[in-house]
Design goal:
Length: 98
């Protein structure tokens, strides 16, 4: 990537995109079941999974809320995986007023 005179990187935001592979997950009888992989260009693992699954996801959560495993190759060509979860409901966020 080219550098500007001040040393910052030049280029469009999409030039920072990386290729990610998203494996959607459903929990059946307490066991994660991963489906076919989806390859997608994105800026982060969370961005990739949210685009592929069209849902908000979180980096932390309980095992029964696991929704995706996201893979990418690191700079040393070693695979890096990230587990993503369905977010917990905010207190009162999904509940109506009484």
């Amino acid at each position: 990537m080219k550098k500007a005179a001040n040393g910052s990187a030049m280029g469009s935001r999409m030039s920072d995109a990386q290729l990610f592979t998203v494996q959607p997950c459903l929990i059946e009888d307490g066991v994660p079941q991963f489906s076919e992989c989806i390859s997608i260009d994105a800026l982060s693992a969370v961005d990739a999974a949210e685009k592929a699954l069209r849902a908000r996801l979180s980096l932390c959560g309980s095992p029964d809320r696991l929704r995706a495993k996201v893979w990418r190759l690191g700079d040393d060509f070693q695979p890096i995986s990230t587990l993503l979860y369905e977010p917990e409901q905010q207190a009162g966020g999904a509940l109506g007023s009484r």
